[in-house]
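Cross-check.
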Amino acid sequence: ALLPAACLLLPWFVSPEIAAWFSRPRVPRKEELSASDLIYLRRLARRTWLYFETFVGPGDNWLPPDNVQEAPHAAIAHRTSPTNIGMMLLSSLTAWDLGYVSSADFAARVHNALDSLDRLDRHRGHFLNWYDTQSLEPLEPHYVSTVDSGNLAVCLLAMKEGFREALSAPAMRREQWDGL
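Predicted model, tokenized:
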């Protein structure tokens, strides 16, 4: 019976070695970006930040509009969702990180947005899915989106780490020169 059992015994005997091999930490490949790739990515990040820099302000209670139509009929959708708010907060952090905004501007933008969030109606502590950015009134139908709430929650966790970094950063950073 040893010969037929060998088909099962052999994998059983070598399984600790296989498990050890799979459990080894992987050494990630490190790819360097070319100078032209870095320039492309910085321009893309700057254009993305320009949206928030242009359309997030006191007229919309420092909350991002859902979208902007340019042509053929210019219009701004003065409504926002938790996902939009989270993306705006992360874009603010990224703009600070890349040197597009100063620490003072970053702090002011986040403070203003969080003040607006404090004024929004909620359902059992949860943000509703759509709000008018000018009046801060919830839009019909009133509902809580677990997807949008989760997106905002993840963005807030990332913001927490970004705030820790910002607190320990010097007043004048090299990234501010790069951002110019």
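The longest helix spans residues 146-168. The longest strand covers residues 67-69. Passed to J.P. for a second look.
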